[in-house]
Amino acid sequence: MPENKFQTEEALARCVPMSMLQGVLSGKWKILILWYVSFYKVQRFGQLLRRLDGVTHSTLTRQLRELERDGFLKRTVYGEVPPRVEYTLTPLGESFAPLLTQMLAWSERNLCPPDYVNPYSYDGG
Q1: How many domains does the structure of the chain reveal?
Q2: Which domain CATH number covers 48?
Q3: Residue 6: inside a domain, yes or no?
Q4: pLDDT (tens digit, 9 = 90+) per residue, 33-66?
Q5: pLDDT for 97 beyond 50
Q6: Does residue 29 contact residue 63 with C-beta atoms inside 8 Å?
């Protein structure tokens, strides 16, 4: 049987892959940003600003830049007046999208009231 690299005391104390994921997803709005871009396929800055009730312009800008830097989002700037910027998932972001769907389903099953219907659920809640 192959040796499990996570069974050492040091590795169990700090699971490096999960720490790396936490570093990428840390930030109050990142999971929701990824969810909306995944669900709608393309999101503009203003659309995200309206969807994320309570986020500030500067916080959204910072978290979008971090997700772009970490390879989850692609930012496309169109040379128009007024300027138009769109965000889409990169292949890395697309590979994370099924996990977002699983997180949604888990939350619906375990955290939401029984009569809750989520308009963003793929199976109708």
Answers
A1: 1
A2: 1.10.10.10
A3: no
A4: 999 999 999 999 999 999 999 999 999 999 999 9
A5: yes
A6: yes
